[in-house]
Amino acid sequence: MTASASRPDRFKVFRAELGRALVALAMALAVAFLIILGTSADPWQAFSTLVTSPLSSNRTIGLWVDDVAKLTLTGIAFSLVFQARQFALGVQGQVYLGGLCATLVAMSPIGTTFAAIPLAIIAAMIAGAAYGFIPGYAKARFGASEIVSSLMLNYIAILVVNYMVRAHLAPPNTGQLMTARFPETAVFPAIIPGTRFDLGIVIALVTVAIVWFALYRTAWGLKLRLVGHNPRFAEYAGIKANFIMVSAMTAAGAVGGLLGAVFVQGRAFGQLAIDFDGNLAFEGILVAIVARNRPLAVPFVALAYGYLRQGAQLMGFRSDVPSEMIAVVQALVILLVASSFTLPGRRFIARLLGRGEADPSTAAGGSR
Amino acid sequence: MIDLLLAVFSTTFLFTVIRTTTPLLLATLGGLLSDLGGALNVALEGMMLIAALTAVIVSVYAPWYVAVLSGLFAGALLGALMALFHLRFKADIILVGFAVNILAVGGTVFALAMATGGDKGTSINLPSKAIPAIHLPFLEAIPLVGPVLFQLFSGHSTLTWFAGFAVFGVWYVLYRTPYGLWLRGVGEYPTAPEAAGIPVNKVRLWSLIGSGAFAGLAGAQLAMFNYVGFTRDMTAGRGFIALGAVLLGARHPVGALLAALLFGFFEALAIVMPNHVRWMPGEMIQTIPFVVTVIALILFSYRSRRASQLKTLTRI
């Protein structure tokens, strides 16, 4: 009831969740190792690249941190809608449209002034929010499944960006599928000169703080979580579920658009290219699921997952195992974390220790 | 514009519509089965992709029908996997579905690189086979309508004919056998069939397996007839469009057929248009199937919301 009683409880939940995530990660890595063993000529070298290479140089650490910022943002966007139990999967589309709008600002005359960075970010967030609003409104007003509509909007946004870059934004007559580099005033300044450690990570952490505050310290956040936990109760309590739903998707859309700005204005790009997100936007699903949609847990999950992602990319370059192998790890982690699995043989061990027969539910209940 | 209209009303265009509809229809029937069982199968896309690659690789070493069956089994296996995690380990079906999709996007590229020796884009170096077309020369002998019928119906994939009959088959199973009643009951109100002694989880398991099998056939058709060979991300959202078609088809096999035909029509239009409409950029033409899906979904949801509520859809 009281805060003091709930503290240790919360700690226990935290420990159980951490344990689950680690077990899932260990099992997924074991499977990854088996796959590498079966496909690589030099499995040990490939596997050690996967698990150690992100720390091998300053450059790779920079790449890792850069990924963490982006994964945090997409994870936050997915957490917001998942907390309201809406399966809007439109972050990718919001990223593309946000990136496009940020590019338009950065390449306009504003791009050379000091206002380039804030205005581009705001433009991207507005575009993302609008794009997140569409499936939300379509669901609230017409009852259209947000899963399908948000996925369709992703494809549309990617094609629109492809067209804009190819036909209008790329330097004419070069055949390039990217724009020229933005003026230096429109690119995020590096926090540590010479690396990719730029404003993106600061933006990501500030976003985490804001979203956490909105979800856990405001009436809107309480309503949102209630709608997600128990829509019927929320309805009886007089909460306008539709309004909450649409506003959650719109807010998540703004975060998605922000990620688009972080992508194109970050030091890694500083320009708009086609297919720039490298499927990262979708990986926010994994981050959000493992973090149990808790904003404060998202950066930590992003840290761990970004490491694995970077390791896989480097493994793709430096060994004979394609980096796409990591998809198996991703899928397994999602499956294991989303399910209330018990370790194989756990009940058996418990019985061996003489505890299983006394209360069989402890064996199964311990994992959830 | 006139020549586009002429092209749309030609038999060759209708032939293209039937070809583009086939994988959509098979996937939609798959989605229908699991949706009626109470589980929205968002993994149709991933199942199609994995089955397409499986079928292509198997077809290098085995006859075409073995390859098609292997695609079917790959899809069914994924359906069983989803059922395992959803029913046994209580994971959310949508998250499980997306795990399958994520596995498919990267996993197929990985497996493709392994099978071709490093090519991450296409299976062009693999001598994969195609599903044989069924030619019906006797149609031409019919007076008057013969040539039109011949152009429309001759030369389609074996799976196209199968898909057509499957619409009837699925309808028959759903509305004329006890299993169909069980399935619909489980999706509608699981407590009632449970009280009647019907094995609810078993029904759900088989609905997901059947769903995967149909999606697998859709993948095989895509990679062994519509295109011969595998390309990365070759499903290009067709699984999600099929999901839209399930919702659009009012959860009925005939509705599924009509919805799949609608989306197949616009996909065929997007194929034909670049030759006739020069002012419209190719990327914008490619968005047509997706835009149509969103609009159709919104219009239809609005109507059906007013008529009655779709139970599984409002719950999620």
How big is the Rg of chain A? 22 Å
**Main sheet makeup of chain B:** 2 strands, antiparallel
Report the β-strand fraction of chain A as a percent range: under 5%
Q: What's the rounded overall pLDDT mean of chain B? A: 85
Mean pLDDT of chain A: 82
- The global form of chain B is globular
Strand content of chain B: under 5%
Q: What is the CA–CA distance across the termini of chain A?
A: 21 Å
User: Strand order across the biggest sheet of chain B?
Assistant: 1-2
CATH C-level of chain A: Mainly Alpha
Question: Strand pairing plus helix content of chain B: what structural class?
Answer: mainly alpha
What CATH architecture of chain A do you see?
A: Orthogonal Bundle
Count of distinct strands of chain B? 2
Question: How many structural domains are formed by the residues of chain B?
Answer: 1
Topology of chain A as a string of helices (H) and strands (E): HHHHHHHHHHHHHHH
- The total of helices of chain A stands at 15
Tell me, briefly, the overall form of chain A: globular
Specify the biggest β-sheet of chain A.
none
Secondary structure topology:
The complex is a heterodimer of chains A (368) and B (316).
Chain A: H1 3-39, H2 43-52, H3 58-83, H4 91-107, H5 116-142, H6 146-169, H7 199-217, H8 219-229, H9 231-236, H10 241-265, H11 284-290, H12 298-318, H13 326-338, H14 346-352, H15 360-365
Helix pairs in contact in A: 1-2, 1-13, 2-12, 3-7, 3-10, 3-11, 3-12, 4-5, 4-6, 4-10, 5-6, 5-10, 7-8, 8-10
Chain B: H1 2-8, H2 11-36, H3 44-61, H4 64-88, H5 93-116, E1 133-134, H6 146-153, E2 156-157, H7 158-176, H8 178-188, H9 191-195, H10 200-226, H11 238-248, H12 253-272, H13 282-286, H14 288-307, H15 311-315
Antiparallel strand pairs in B: 1-2
